[in-house]
Specification:
Length: 362
């Protein structure tokens, strides 16, 4: 009887601390295949750097991709990373793995901002990937991360950013970006209209931070539930009282006179401002008075662009002109003796001023 000798080749790696290459990790996060990752590494000079051949580089890439895939389940519940025994990863590397896993492309976030984080939106990821040039696998990871964070924190008590940091161990900057995504998904702000396309994710994220800090229930009461996710209904209702500023002719004229006295000789578009003052004031006050309706809350940014920013842009206001106008427009109200709603006014206009200045690209 003849026995045929069988030989097998095995790649064996024995070690203590898990070896993680950050560049390979990024390729995995980007949704690259092993083949494409090897090609990218070769083009980046990995063969010369490691003094290895293509076969060794392929084996290393496959090994690292397997490690990342095994880690992924843990990364989806970041608190488990420190307590697991499968991989020996130093704390600073754990932080890197988690932070990078939850990082996202601003272009991708801009496409899904304000949309419902549901299966319906997930079906659009193919189109979003084609539009942004982001690999579909990466789009899915980013979308699933948005959805996961939203589900965990939407019902929690306490500040939104702190809840995200505590449950997902993210840096302050990244946690604030996720807070913006959660906040926009909850209130379903309109961000997709053509006139809003010039605004970046960071423009909207800044505005979300302002709204969270000053218009939510948590802005005035730090013991209630869902404090940073929902806008305070009582505050939105009280904004109707601001209508007196434009409905009372004497008050409107007095307000205009005060602002004009402050700005004469200080802005280049003084005559344009003087001519359009009443229309601009009505626009700002009317936006405030309608925020009791869900649809008008959703349309906040399109209303600011159409009713305030575009008229100023067509008159060629500079950002400096706008800053001076909004500063004096807001503060001069305090000298109107008949106006009794200064606290509500300041809370409203502080946010509106900050958002308009962020959204105004002159």
């Amino acid at each position: 009887m003849l026995f045929k000798k069988m030989s097998m080749e095995l790649d064996v790696f024995v070690g203590n601390t898990t070896v993680l290459d950050e560049d390979v990790y990024q390729l995995w996060l980007d949704g690259q295949t092993v083949t494409d990752a090897v090609r990218i590494r070769i083009e980046a000079g990995a063969l010369q750097e490691c003094e290895a051949n293509a076969e060794v580089l392929l084996s290393d890439t496959m090994d690292q991709f397997r490690t990342f895939q095994m880690c992924e389940r843990l990364l989806q519940s970041p608190s488990k990373v420190a307590n697991q025994l499968l991989f020996q990863i130093p704390p600073h590397r754990q932080t890197m793995l988690i932070e990078r896993y939850y990082e996202f492309d601003s272009m991708f976030a801009r496409e899904v901002l304000g949309k419902k984080l549901s299966k319906g939106t997930k079906k659009d990821l193919d189109d979003i990937g084609s539009k942004t040039g982001i690999v579909l696998k990466s789009c899915r990871r980013q979308f699933d991360n948005f959805k996961r964070v939203f589900k965990v924190v939407e019902e929690l008590k306490g500040p939104l950013v702190e809840n995200i940091q505590r449950h997902f161990l993210l840096s302050d900057v990244l946690a604030r970006d996720y807070a913006a995504i959660v906040f926009f998904a909850n209130s379903r702000f309109e961000t997709g209209k053509r006139k809003l396309q010039y605004l970046s994710f960071q423009d909207f994220a800044f505005c979300a931070g302002q709204l969270i800090s000053y218009w939510t229930v948590g802005a005035v009461d730090n013991v209630v539930e869902n404090m940073d996710v929902d806008l305070e209904k009582e505050f939105l209702h009280d904004l109707k009282d601001l209508k007196v500023l434009v409905n009372d002719k004497d008050m409107l004229d007095q307000h205009k006179s005060l602002v004009c006295a402050q700005l004469r000789g200080k802005i280049k578009v003084f005559s344009e401002m003087e001519a359009s003052f009443k229309n601009l004031s009505r626009a700002l006050v009317n936006i405030a008075s309608k925020l009791t309706h869900t649809k008008d809350v959703r349309d906040l940014f399109i209303d600011l662009v159409e009713k305030f920013i575009e008229p100023c842009r067509s008159d060629k206001w500079t950002i400096g002109d706008l800053r001076l106008f909004l500063t004096h427009y807001s503060s001069s109200v305090h000298t109107l003796e008949a106006f009794r709603r200064q606290v509500i006014w300041d809370r409203y206009m502080g946010v509106i001023k900050s958002c308009i200045l962020k959204m105004y690209h002159d």
